[in-house]
Write a structure and sequence with these properties.
Elements (H helix, E strand, L loop, with lengths): L1 E6 L7 E3 L2 E7 L2 E7 L14 H13 L4 E5 L12 H17 L4 E4 L3 H9 L4 E4 L8 H8 L3 E4 L17 H19 L4 E4 L8 H9 L10 E2 L5 H7 L8 H13 L4 E4 L2 H15 L5
Parallel strand pairs: 4-5, 4-11, 5-6, 6-7, 7-8, 8-9, 10-11
Antiparallel strand pairs: 1-3, 2-3
Helix pairs in contact: 1-2, 2-3, 3-4, 8-9
Length: 287
């Protein structure tokens, strides 16, 4: 199993080809979470200062994260939107420092103006959990030649749990992801990954249904981000978000065994070790 991410601008660790650069990896890799916010549900405020955030981002990369995902706006259920200027002030220095260190950086944002600034200081990927709710996002990514992760999120973080109603969650989510992928590719975005939005506008039953239906029929590499989310707490009885890493690993190993290209996690070192062992057990010739 090999995954690839294409870009028309230099990408650390990528090989040069005729129309840009291609980053390839074998088996599920880890996208490390770096929240530079005061109010994220698990680690809000821990890395809100630039120096702390940059140090943590470098430690995530050193622990084996293929990508470090920098976010300046909480997307937890019920979170209110952040002014774009505030979001930019949070992410710009962190993205710039990490990119200058040779880290593959994604910027986790719903806003094209934030994405444009982050790309301008070195971001290599845009992670848009909203699934292109901002109509300018595809143009920003296409012009810059950077890949995009399109996620599924009904409504906004403030309202998404009120919109957790589906006739067929798997069909509706995969349909929305295919449509977003097609829009991005048609606009000239060089590469698209798809995220079913586990925990975003979905009940526990919806999340489980999506995971059990992997590999999802989206025709794009799949990103799964279940790290420490509420449904893990509801199903395991663990109330504290930062104690849900074992449950997170169980979800992400399940996703990896069903073809996920990336899993988005807080506990990068634990994931890298568990995924390596899972790969060794499952794949002939991996030893």
């Amino acid at each position: 199993m090999t995954f690839a991410l294409h870009a028309r601008r230099p990408l650390p660790g990528a090989s040069a080809d005729a129309d840009g650069w291609t980053l390839r990896w074998t088996s599920t890799a880890v996208m490390g979470i770096l929240n530079v916010t005061p109010d994220s549900f698990s680690d809000g405020g821990r890395f809100a200062g630039t120096e702390l955030a940059v140090d943590h981002g470098r430690s995530l990369a050193a622990a084996g994260a293929l990508v470090v995902d920098v976010g300046g706006e909480s997307t937890r259920p019920g979170a209110e939107p952040v002014d774009p200027a505030v979001e930019i002030d949070r992410v710009r220095p962190v993205v710039a420092a990490l990119a200058a260190s040779g880290v593959v950086v994604s910027v986790d944002t719903r806003r094209a103006e934030v994405a444009a600034v982050a790309i301008g200081v070195g971001a290599h990927i845009v992670n848009d959990v909203s699934g292109l709710a901002d109509p300018e996002m595809v143009a920003v990514c296409a012009t810059a030649g950077v890949p995009i992760v399109v996620g599924h999120l009904p409504g906004t973080p403030a309202t998404m749990q009120e919109a957790a109603h589906y006739d067929d969650v798997v069909a509706e989510v995969t349909g929305a992801l295919r449509a977003a992928r097609d829009t991005a590719l048609a606009a000239g975005v060089p590469s698209v990954l798809a995220d079913p939005g586990i925990g975003f506008g979905k009940t526990s039953a919806h999340n489980i249904a999506l995971l059990r239906s992997m590999p999802l029929e989206v025709d794009a590499p799949i990103v799964v981000g279940a790290s420490r989310k509420g449904f893990i707490g509801r199903l395991t009885g663990v109330a504290e978000a930062d104690r849900r890493d074992p449950g997170t690993l169980a979800v992400h190993l399940f996703a990896a065994q069903r073809g996920a290209a990336l899993v988005r996690a807080h506990d990068v070192a634990g994931h890298v070790q568990a995924l390596a062992m899972d790969w060794a057990l499952r794949e002939p010739g991996s030893m």
